[in-house]
Amino acid sequence: MSAPDLATLLQGAGTLPTLPQVVTHILETLNDDNADADSLVQRLNTDPVIVARLLAAANSSAFGLSSQVASTRQAILVLGLKTVRTITLATALIEQFGNVTSGFDGRLLWRHSVGVATCARVIAERIGHNAEAAFSAGLLHDIGQLLMMAVAPDACAEVRIRMRQGDIGIVAAEQEIFGYDHAIAGGELARLWRLPEDIVGAIHGHHRPDSGEDGEIGDLVHIAEVLSHALDLGSAEKNHVPDVSEIALLRLGLDWSMLAPRFPEIEARYSGVRQALGL
Questions:
Q1: Where among 60, 81, 99 does a domain terminate?
Q2: What angle do CA 92, 94, 98 make, to 5 degrees?
Q3: Separation CA 206–CA 140 (nearest Å)
Q4: 121: containing domain
Q5: In whole angstroms, how large is the CA radius of gyration of the chain?
Q6: Surface-to-core class of residue 48, CB atoms within 10 Å of its CB (0-12 exposed, 13-18 middle, 19+ buried)
Q7: Which pLDDT tens digit goes with each residue over 17-38?
Q8: Is the separation of the CB atoms in 147 and 9 below 8 Å?
Q9: Are residues 152 and 276 in the same domain?
Q10: Residue 76 contacts by C-beta under 8 Å, 6 or more apart in sequence?
Q11: Of 10, 40, 52, 117, whose CB neighbour count within 10 A is largest?
């Protein structure tokens, strides 16, 4: 059994579904304070699964309203654009990529991704970074794992064996089997999909922040991943807390004492998003 090299892996990207139009639109407008809400509503209304999630979330939040929320536009008014984007991105990605391979529980990956995204948003709020871009980057940070599972499931199974037998983390095991890891693969896939550069940087840099080549967003998502594991968001079977980069903390002007008071809030936010998404 031999794992494909990176170029061959990327040639197999066509085995993954394409990003839904509404996801592409949201990612393109994350830094646009004047983004057209009407355009978003039109795109949302093309996806009945997303609309159903938004209406359910809006009605569960609208205790004081005299009538039910019955339209996407009403849902935006009740929930706010930030929450609508959160639910839309997560729902679309989970629906599109939830079961791209057999023998792989995509829901566990998405629970973890939602945990990282939630932590990334809180960290971004603390340091004044774009919180929605941070959430989106956290949600997509492990997309390389989906590509590797879709194209090379046998090699990924060998990665799991190597992790168990050698008691090593996923990045080290992937490097041994593939010669690269899911962060590198995911970053190249994000470039192939022409995602915004900060999203590309976050995906590529979340396991190697010390180099600094992926900027603030790479540092941010790296710390969010460590924090998500430390809080056991996602309830992984064998949760392993990665080492945190002190250099990344220093560059962002953070230490754990600044984040600790927000741990209960992070856990509550995560539970709320999981409930809204049915995860």
A1: 99
A2: 135
A3: 11
A4: 1-16+101-279
A5: 19
A6: exposed
A7: 778 888 888 887 776 666 677 7
A8: yes
A9: yes
A10: 37, 40, 41, 84
A11: 117
> What does the chain come to in residues?
279
Least Cα distance to 192 among 35, 6, 3 occurs for: 6
Domains contained in the chain, number: 2
- The two structure tokens encoding residue 277: 């998404």
The residue out of 99, 123, 151 marking a domain boundary is 99
Tokens in use for 163? 């992790």
Q: Taking Cα atoms as reference points, which of 112, 122, 106, 117 lies closest to residue 199? A: 117
Give the integer Cα–Cα distance in Å for 225 and 242. Answer: 8
Find out whether 150 and 12 touch, Cβ atoms under 8 Å.
yes
Helix axes 37-44, 48-61, angle to 10 degrees: 110
**Closest to 226 in 3D by CA, of 254, 207, 247:** 207
* Interval 231-245 mean pLDDT: 79
Q: Write the pLDDT tens digit of every residue in 43-77.
A: 888 888 888 888 888 887 655 555 688 888 888 88
- Percentage of the chain lying above the pLDDT 90 cut: 32
pLDDT at 62: 54
